[in-house]
User: Fold these one by one.
Assistant:
Number 1:
Amino acid sequence: MINIVLFGKPGAGKGTQAEFLKEKYNLVHISTGDIFRFNIKNETELGKAAQVYINRGDLVPDSLTIKMLESEVNKNTEASGFLFDGFPRTEAQAIALDNFLKTKDWQITATIALDADDTVLVERILERGKTSGRADDQDEVKIRNRYAEYNEKTAPLIDFYKKQNKFYAVNGIGTITEVTERLGSVIEKL
Ligand code: AMP
């Protein structure tokens, strides 16, 4: 079983790359952002609770996010591996994930970051916002807030995974195929 955390700032290309990697390595792709958006669209209780945070560009509270993630994993216990996209984003989430996987005798195999410069990323998100319909993609103040959240709460996870010898990074700038190949060369050595 391989369980991979795809790591990177908003706009780094996690969702795009996940689409290729899940096919190539037969992984169940879990994007917490996509699940939140699905719940908002369908006006579920979870969607209503998460919407206010997402629209501001804030992280959704850990309690809600962790519970949702665990229930998604539990829907796929026959999986040969998972690709976590956008989770964990805080140290509390990373600890909860380790503990939860341990209850199943599973663990994270590797965390792979897509590196890219902030200025390139903000441009990419604004461009995506023209078609994604996402409120948090269309306003530079909200986008900057997502980066502030990343720097404060998510960046410390780099050290968290380095301490476990599970952190890898690839250059996230290039064509989609080039980046998929870079990720693949890390995965194939695991
Ligand atoms: P994403 O599509 O991954 O950029 O996520 C969009 C938004 O969903 C984020 O800005 C957060 O508000 C929320 N979100 C997604 N994943 C998480 C997470 N692991 N923890 C907290 N909030 C999250």
Note: Residues 10, 32-33, 36, 53-54, 57-60, 65, 86-87, 89, 93, 136, 146 surround adenosine monophosphate (CB under 6 Å).
Number 2:
Amino acid sequence: MPTNIRSYAKINIGLRIGSRREDGFHELRTVYQTIALHDVIRVQTARGMGIEIRCKNPKVPDDETNTCWRVTERVLKALKKRAKVSITITKNLPVQGGLGAGSSNAVATMVALEKELGEQLEPAQRLAIAREVGSDLPLFLVGGTILGIGRGEQVFPLTDLQSIACVVATPPIAVSTPKAFADWDEKFERARESKGKLTQSNGSGTIDEFSTSVFSWLMGTTAGVPAKSGDRAETPLLDLVRAGIENDFERVVFPQYPELRDVKRVLEREGAKYASLSGSGSTVYGLFETAEAAEKAAAKLEAKGVPASATRTVDRAEYWRDIWIG
Ligand code: C5P
């Protein structure tokens, strides 16, 4: 029996870029949030050997460069199993859109493959495989609201925040993540000069500011001023604006692709309580107070020719409950 599983997308709520490390990666601080938009992954095992990937989207590779392939090889090795593994990816999410789709597909494959093989990896083994394959995989082993540090691969579950409406707009622009990091280095030279230091000053302020913003946000205060009763939004996700959480990639990506800044402005004009680039883009998202407002904003963007969907955030309990399709 094949296993069908939902492969949810993520957005980044704030992302601070630190210095380039010895290994070439950048030190990061981010909060990941899973959302309801998803691809579907179907995994089937049979006797024999080999990996087969099927996807109607020609942008998705069907060879060993696919993250699903790389995870499958490692899971089989770790569990000391032999099997012929067929993976079918039904794509709804944009490829390379800042929504972590490829990373999510890989983790969904891992979870489905364990079920197919009738054996689970230890949590530490799962994490080791996820980290090895990419910085954005481990978050999908947690789901909900997650703190990401290191190169984004060290993940810690945060208090789950109540689901709220969200609009995800992905203009058809391929933003290269390695290039966005390189542009960041070039633009903020001082970051390179202070290589190796975690809390250096760079063009965006400091990584320390991220801790302060997240602390203020999650503790319900901003700038040390306690929120008055009734002042705090019912939905803590919407307190973000006052906490001043930002995505550093906007500072290198928006000047290059001004149409992405325009999308953020449309979302704000349409009533988003918070709008931001996700990862290095090209996805721009907005968080809304009501599903109706989100749907109206998505329709407005679509009318302007920008692919957009109204969705909502997914907390950890829902993530793990609804991941299984059957
Ligand atoms: O880990 P992942 O495959 O997602 O990273 C893709 C590329 O993005 C890396 O090869 C690196 O150039 C860049 N990157 C980085 N710092 C990070 C994450 C990614 O420089 N924290």
Note: The pocket of cytidine-5'-monophosphate is lined by residues 25-26, 28, 134-136, 151-152, 177-178, 181 (CB under 6 Å).
